[in-house]
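Quick question, first post here. What does this chain look like in 3D?
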Amino acid sequence: MDEYRELNAMERQQDTNLWASSAIYLAFNGVLLIALANAVRSPSLLAILATIGLGAVGFVVVWVWNITAERAHAYEDRWIDRARDLQDRMRLPPAFAVWDRQGPEGTPARRANLLLRRMFLAVWGFVLIFGLVSLIMFGYGISWP
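> Answer (accepted):
Ran it through. Tokens below.
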């Protein structure tokens, strides 16, 4: 029974860690968006370089966020599977078992987290491409309409 409690506690702690780190990554993305809003206010070379830099940093930050979140989910799944195996071996009645086979109804929270990460990855990818195109246009003396 101690192993079962420990597996459940490990999964809960991993879930807490994931959401805490996601909040930090999200806040950092907000800071980068504020910096981007300030960078794009002028059509200078420095502003274009800042846009490229912010796009690259944002893209890498979200990529790292994605890696850490997927790794956290892998650990969660591993510990849940082991807890389910112990539940089955201990023959816990379904009314008392912590982990059932189907989970609660509705959209899983990990899907919302994934959607948020993909959205930011697309935003920073767009910013990076926009900055690179702007740099090329600046080099040729072409301005945005």
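The mean pLDDT is 90.
Residues 2-139 form one domain.
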